[in-house]
Amino acid sequence: MFNPRDQDLAGYGAPAAAGALASGNARTVTLSRFNSFSERYGQWRERASLTLAEFDIAPDLAQDIGSPRWFRGVVTMFALAALALALWPDFSALEAAPMHLDHAERDEFRSQMIMPLALGADSGRHMAATSAVVPLKSAPERPRIELVATLSQGDSFARMLQRAGVGAGEIGDVTSLVASAMPLNEIEPGTRVDITLGRRPAPGAPRPLDDLSFRARFDLELGLQRKNGQLALEPHPIRVDATPLRITGTIGDSLYRSARADGAPVKAVQEYLRTLNDQVDLDRLSAGDKFDMIVSYKRAATGETQTGNLLYAAILRGGKPRTQLMRWGKDGQFFEASGVGEQTGGLLRPVPGKITSGYGMRFHPILGYTRMHAGIDLRANYGEPIHAAAAGSVVFAGRHGGHGNFVKLNNGGGLGTGYAHMSRIAVHVGQRVRQGQIIGYVGSTGLSTGPHLHYEVYENGRTVNPLSVKFVTRAMLKGKELADFRAQLHKLLEVEPGAALEPLAPEADETKPPAREIDRADHPRQIS
Ligand SMILES: [Zn+2]
């Protein structure tokens, strides 16, 4: 640390001298204090104190190098270092005492360890029976087993019972009892069935079914109970209210968001938008317009709800319906509800589908160059009927070049209509057709990439944009059917918006019987 040959010894000498002086002064003070102590505490204390005070245990090793005091300091330093090293803790590894296992002990260890099955694991303690063990004739069993079985996709009710442990002899009884209340194949997959199996009548015999209950249908809960040894069916009809759900509101920024905010189920909004999109240009709607939708809706007294199909979709502008569509008929097609059955000057839409390609210049998908598209393309499925847009006479029916199977009508007043790519033609030249009469079926003959209806309108022999002539999708109804259509529309429009969302009255009001009743006179019946 200190180089004894350092030239600037004076630099160290001066503070060292000052230190010695200072320590000398301190010693003088201490001595005088010890002298005053010695008068009270005796001679040996004084001597010990003096010796300790004189003893210089750690001399400065930079001073008086080579002197006996200096060597004592070096020895002290090494002694302290050696002591410190001697007190260094021992980190040598812990050593376990060697264990000597005999065969029995090794087996005992084996039974406690976890080992892969592939290596012959036989974990778990095995104890051989001693003379204290008395074998039982039969092991005690739980008296009842309660379980939940689920009817899966493609499953049968009988197979589900078999899996649950119902005896083969009883499965037939159970299925015929349930089938007497409702067809077994109408039970929805995923239905959970609560099953209670009772005490075995004899060892090894299957457990008898004591109780079985499940929600068979939205409006029916079925129970099977053993009474006096016989299984009895107990249907519990659930009161269901089928008031359709009507939702109205202002379109605002987004029809979807507004309708959702007003409580319309997602599926209903999607169906509403899809239905309207086929009939009106949704981009032309304004924020102030109102939407009005009615969805079939079922509420069970037990709290579940079921949202069905869209029944009615309308757009109102200034309080008046602008578009009013109602689902009608077996195939659930939507029809413009206003003016149904009325003969108007407008042209009937030959198929209800959306326009997929408009009138004007366009790039032809098959020919590969831009040319005039002389009509409009309407989306339609293969085989869908094509209706005459207006009454008239057939002036052409047959193959017509790129048009494929083609029908052209003269609708009078200089107006004509043409229908192309038909799969089948249902009229012949010279025939008179009514408005709405089926003149053929959708196909993809001629220059066509897929089934659709290419529809042309002529004014004085030249094609015009069919959209410039007013279109209507209108059910052509007469007599009783027309009356029914109007009656249903009237009934739907009487539904108060949001009425179906109000809570169902808690107790069954007797004016509204359950939608479908299963009543077996020989069994108790109960309305929950
Ligand atoms: Zn076309």
What do these coordinates show?
- Strands 13, 16, 17, 18, 19, 20, 21, 22, 23 and 24 form a ten-stranded antiparallel beta sheet that branches. Strands 6, 7, 8, 9, 10 and 11 form a six-stranded antiparallel beta sheet that branches.
- It contains nine helices and 25 strands.
- Helices cover 25% and strands 28% of the residues.
- The protein starts with 8 loop residues before the first helix and ends in a 35-residue tail after the last helix.
- Bound molecules: zinc ion.
- Residues 357, 373, 375, 377, 454 line the site of zinc ion.
Low-confidence stretches: 1-32, 508-528
- According to DSSP, the number of beta strands is 25
Helix/strand-derived category reads alpha+beta
The gross shape turns out to be elongated
Spatial gap, N to C terminus: 101 Å
Mean pLDDT: 78
Q: Residue share in helices?
A: 25-40%
Bound molecules: zinc ion
Number of helices: 9
**Radius of gyration from CA coordinates:** 51 Å
Strand content: 25-35%
Q: Main sheet, how many strands, which sense, barrel?
A: 10 strands, antiparallel
Topology:
Elements: H1 9-41, H2 43-54, H3 68-86, H4 103-112, E1 145-150, H5 157-164, H6 168-181, E2 192-197, E3 209-217, E4 220-227, E5 230-237, E6 240-241, E7 245-250, H7 255-261, H8 266-279, E8 290-300, E9 305-317, E10 320-328, E11 333-336, E12 347-348, E13 355-357, E14 360-363, E15 370-373, E16 376-379, E17 385-387, E18 392-399, E19 405-412, E20 415-425, E21 432-433, E22 438-442, E23 452-459, E24 462-464, E25 471-472, H9 479-493
Parallel strand pairs: 12-25
Antiparallel strand pairs: 1-2, 2-3, 3-4, 4-5, 6-8, 7-8, 8-9, 9-10, 10-11, 13-16, 14-15, 16-23, 17-22, 18-19, 18-21, 19-20, 20-22, 20-23, 23-24
Helix pairs in contact: 1-2, 5-6, 7-8
Residues 357, 373, 375, 377, 454 line the site of zinc ion.
